[in-house]
Every structure is written in C-alpha cells, then in structure tokens.
Amino acid sequence: MKDNSIVVRKVIDITEEVISQCGFILQEERNGEVTDIIYDPIYLYECNGYIYGAFTNYLLDDDKLKIMFYYYSKNHSEDFDVDTDLDSKEEKYLKKALKDDEVKDRIKRIGKIVKKLSHKVRDFNEDVNAFNDEDSYSQERISKCYEHFMKVKECFSNLSLLETKILSNWGIDYTSLIARVDAFLDMLGNKKFALERREDQLPLFDNKQKDLEKDVYEELGIPEDFQNINPKYMVKSFVDESSGGLSPYKLELLINYYYENGWKLYKVFTNKIGNKSINGFSIPTGSIEQTIVVFERMDEDL
Questions:
Q1: Are 211 and 241 in the same domain?
Q2: What is the structure's pLDDT at 159?
Q3: What pTM, to 2 d.p., does this model score?
Q4: What is the per-residue pLDDT for 221?
Q5: How many CB atoms lie within 10 A of CB 250?
Q6: Is-contact 72 50, C-beta < 8 A?
Q7: d(CA 251, CA 284)
Q8: Which domain holds residue 82?
Q9: Residue 65 included in any domain
Q10: 2 falls within a domain
C-alpha cells in the first residue's frame, strides 16, 4: 500500500552557531588508541522530532571529503546517541540534497581546506626527515632551511579554528605541532652556530699547528723548510693495560697488521725508568704508563 503521508522537513541553515550546536563527538580507534573525533554538519534538517544530516569528520576518502549520514533526537540530553540506520526515504533525500549547488560548494570549500592542510603537514614531515638524513650541512644549506621553516612556523601559527579542529581529528595536537617546529628551528640554530664557530676557529687552529711545528723544529734543530714526506720510520704511542705492557695478543696483532701494510717492527720503548727493551720487545720490571712502538718502512722488494 502506497504511503501518501506528507513528510515535513525543515532545512536548517549552516552557521557557525549551528555547527557548534549540532555537531557531535564520537569515540573511535585511531592508530591503536581510542580518541575523540569531531563530526560537523554539512547539511541539516529537522523532521518528526529528529535532526537529520550529512556530517564530515574531515577525513579524505579517495581524495574526497568523507561524508556520512546521521540522525538523533532533537530534544536530546548532554550525552546522546546518534544513529546511522536512516529510513530509506531520509537517506534518499540526503543524497539528493548533496547535489544542491550550495551544498556542493560547501563540500568543495571544506575539501580544499583539508587537502591543503594535509599537504602542509606532509611536506613538513618530509622536509624534516630529508634534512635529518643528510650526512653534512653547509652554512648556506642550514640558512635556507632555517628561513624555510620560519615560514612553516608562521603558516602553522596562523591556522584557523577549523584547521586546528581538523588537526585534532587527525590525532595531531596543535600545540605539540608548533613545539615540534620550534624544536627543529632550535636544532638548526645550534647547528648554524656550531658551524660558524668551527669555521671561525679553523684559521686559529691552523695557525696554532704551524706555531707548534715551528717550536718543535727549533727545539730539535730541524730547518723550517723540512717536510716529513714519505718517512722511513713511524712512531705509535699506546696506553698500556693495568698489568703493565701490551698483552702478547695485542702486540702480535699490532705487529702483523703494520707488517702487512709495509711497516716492520723496529723498536719498542717505554717511558718508565726500570723497563728494558730487549730485541725490540718491552720487558716490564715495574708499572708502565705508556708504550712507544717504532715501525720501519720496508723496501718495496721485501
């Protein structure tokens, strides 16, 4: 039997006040955690004591704004239930309503905001990861990054209330996001400062090295123009074990390693009086603090 009853639907204008009053929060599981998700109305109407509407949680589905149909009692308490099991007539009506030009424009406008914000957050994360993956940084690179992330901070600092609401639905705390940008800027500033100090100190370091070499040359009576290129002997210093002297295993490993690389053992000395050097090996008679091993470069025909 055909239902000829008249259905009266009162369309509700979507204003900021209506969004605040008619939106609702559902607890849903996201990334293994139960969190509050905000649902705001796109289209609303009142019928037979119930509020029907198309709502969004500001997520994207196949690059389109996700829209869901819900209804609930108009005279509800503070804690109320929402239902998705709409009558076929109401569901059909809502689908038709979404084709209205004004509603389509609203969906398109919100969708653009969601996509743009999604790209901002994605680009920020990718830029941070790309910088952290780099092995070294130049002054120019750090300066450009600092300038770029200052613009990112300004962009995030000027987000609208709607955008902060969208972030919340994505599980991103707005305050934490700004704090993360600030932390990254601090890290860049520290790297920039450290690099500047290093570059400023390099000439001083080079000059100190030259002065040190000059003093050593004078002390040993060596002409300043002497260059220690292709030396015949190589000296290595080692801190000894508490037992005194290098262990036989370490000494054997040391000698064989340098022998395979073209250096043979010449002498072993200790800087402690009372130790003897016999045939190139240290024989400790007391406490040893340091062992000096001298290697001789082997001729190519050996």
A1: no
A2: 93
A3: 0.61
A4: 75
A5: 14
A6: yes
A7: 14
A8: 10-99
A9: yes
A10: no
